[in-house]
Design brief:
The chain is an alpha+beta fold and about 150 residues long. The chain contains 3 helices and 8 strands. The termini are far apart.
Length: about 150
């Protein structure tokens, strides 16, 4: 059986993309993506749990993220987990961090409470004709469903 290392996140950016390095082939970008889960605790109260994930994008993918995403953008990211190890300069202790190295990302339109599709901010879809076509198709299907 083959080993797999695949991660898929759907969430929102907690802050604007951070360009860490620019190169001839693009840029290296770090994202902070929040995912939410709701559950009932022992007191039957609804609790919202947000987990924050560090995502890295490289080259042309980093360029696209840096130019099209911003705080609050809803994205689907596919990639792999990587663990990095380093020595803490102050304590000398070995430290670890886990990040997601993205292979793809998509900007996602959200369904509003009225089951309508809201268009992401223009910077999210600028130059993305496929997303605009998809949004129009979904709007058409939802309007037919309501009739």
């Amino acid at each position: 059986m083959l080993d797999t290392n695949e991660v898929k996140l759907t969430g929102n950016l907690g802050r604007d993309p951070e360009v860490l390095k620019r190169t001839d082939t693009g840029c290296f970008v770090r994202l902070s993506v929040g995912t939410n889960k709701k559950y009932k605790n022992a007191q039957k109260e609804i609790v919202k749990d947000t987990q924050w994930h560090t995502v890295y994008l490289n080259n042309w993918l980093g360029d696209k993220a840096a130019s099209h995403l911003k705080t609050g953008s809803r994205v689907v990211i596919s990639g792999e987990l990587q663990t990095k190890q380093w020595e803490d300069e102050k304590t000398g202790e070995t430290r670890y961090s886990v990040g997601i190295y993205a292979k793809t990302f998509e900007v996602v339109a959200k369904l509003s409470k009225e089951n309508d599709v809201s268009t992401p901010d223009k910077t999210d879809v600028e130059g993305n004709a496929d997303l605009n076509i998809l949004l129009e198709q979904v709007r058409g299907l939802l309007s037919k469903k309501r009739k």
